[in-house]
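Final report, Chapter 2: Outcomes

The project's central promise was a pipeline that accepts a single protein chain and returns its three-dimensional structure in a standardized token representation, suitable for archiving and comparison. That pipeline is now operational. To close this chapter, we reproduce one record exactly as it appears in the project archive, with the input sequence first and the structure output second.
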Amino acid sequence: MHLLTNKIIFPSVDLADEEGLLAIGGDLTPARLLEAYKNGIFPWYNEDDPICWWSPDPRCVLFPDQLYISKSMQRVLKAGEMVFTVNTAFEEVIRNCKSISRKGEYGTWIHDEMVDAYIQLHKLGYAISGEAWKDGKLAGGLYGVRIGNVFFGESMFSAVSNASKFAFINFVQHLSKDDVKLIDCQMQTNHLLSLGATMIPRSAFTSLLKSYV
């Protein structure tokens, strides 16, 4: 495991352990976060732990043209009960991702230090969000980091049934029109796989980053 210093540099992702842990330490400054994402690395750690940097193998990704919309979600999209927006409530989205209760999970990895870091990235134009609204209230959403033709997804939440899927589908379609070629989903979940995400080797992922970032 590599210990980071004040220099904004990361070791080769090939040095990550079997679980994908590559390094610890450093900080969450915009410069370090952007350098991490460009190299296929992301932070993930508990509030009282040192910052941990990960690059799992294989990697969960979604190619926008492989987005899968089930028949049930097609009906939700056509119903017109929710409205989709981009980047109109970033701070509200990330704070909901932080506080929302998730089945089988206790607490959250999105603590105040992470929230502040990504709000700063948002103000610099890198971190963006997609929102689902119902009856004028935020019903679901997601956020992540856009660099070049890649969107690095971080987290999503749903306060209303299907709201996160509604936001995700619309957001992927929006990104596709804006020339995004690859969406990094980081870790595999059944929720993401049901929407068309797939697993690829880390070597293939980092190769794509060289082309698209």
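Archive annotation: The chain has seven helices and eleven strands.
This record, like all others produced under the grant, will remain available to the consortium after the project formally closes.
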